[in-house]
Amino acid sequence: MVFGKLFGALKKTREALTSGLQRLFSIGRKLDDQLLEELEELLYNSDLGPVGSRLVEDLKAAYKKREIKETGDVVPFLRQRLLTLLEGCEAPLARAAQAPTVILVVGVNGSGKTTSIAKLARHLRSQGHTVMLGAGDTFRAAAVEQLTMWAERLGIPIVKQGTGADPAAVAFDAVSAAVARKVDYLILDTAGRLHTQKNLMTELEKIVRVVRKQVPDAPHETLLVLDGTTGQNAIRQAAEFAKAAPVSGLVLTKMDGTAKGGALFGIREVLPVPIKFLGVGEGMDDLEPFAVTAYVDAILQFERGAPA
Questions:
Q1: Is the entire prediction scored with pTM above 0.85?
Q2: Distance between CA atoms of 276 and 93, rounded to whole angstroms?
Q3: How far is the C-alpha of 285 from the C-alpha of 45, rounded, in Å?
């Protein structure tokens, strides 16, 4: 059994899935084609989407081969397949050979991007690293103000300019300051443009160019922040951002407020990069490094081969 913040945060996702499994497996039902059809509908509606359909196809094939014979075999089978789908999904945050490590953060407004930056800064500080922020979302005055507020609360430096300033100029100044102060990590915010806007790629490319003038191998991470409550829409955003930016990792936010945690598997399919962190609550310490086994076991409530 999985305990802790992650298990608590995934309560809604787990309940949506396991209550359905309990209903399917109740009153001594046998494993047959009808039950498998109902299971496919359940998985699809749990925001696993097409991934759920393929899981059931695998189940049907295993059933025909008699590799699984009864309902008690289903959850362990699903667990193993879900673990396989997320192979290679864990990875530590990059660390440059020479400071600063530059982290570029992208994502649409409302995804929890600014708060995630603050949580990430606190996480890095808790590990003994020095951190600086760059307020590159200059198109929204509120974004700069919010990031400034977090920097002040955390007691870390921030580089910013006025509303409407060139984001690349902010990035250049921030990198200059981080290099001069020998900061371990520089986290650069970017404009929370809608993923459909075509100038996103041009803007990000310009930021990368100016950053590399001072730190040639930067950015060392480009993290895409996605709102976990948006389910299938988060999958579409992942696909669009993958076209616009060299995303190296994902941060999924608001996982404690959604029953759509299954969308993570679809996101992983369209953007096969590591999931670096999950936002599991509103507190500043509620940012968890992603762990595949803990995640799968938390949504299945896996214990002794059956949903609890």
A1: yes
A2: 7
A3: 31
